[in-house]
Amino acid sequence: MSLIFEVYQIALSEEQIESITQYLKKIYQSGSKFHGDSLAALRTEQDKIQKRINQVYDDKLDGFVD
């Protein structure tokens, strides 16, 4: 099986390049924000669960739970 590649050259104005660059930066920032927000939510949930585990453990040690 042979692969055929065609190469095209396109010319973009400085304005088009700037527009594309800004668009790509916006997409990247949006993805980064989503990632950061998701990570923060997961850490909050993890902390909540760990707090519950610690409380149950303390209750067990104190004899409140058999």
TrEMBL record:
This is Uncharacterized protein.
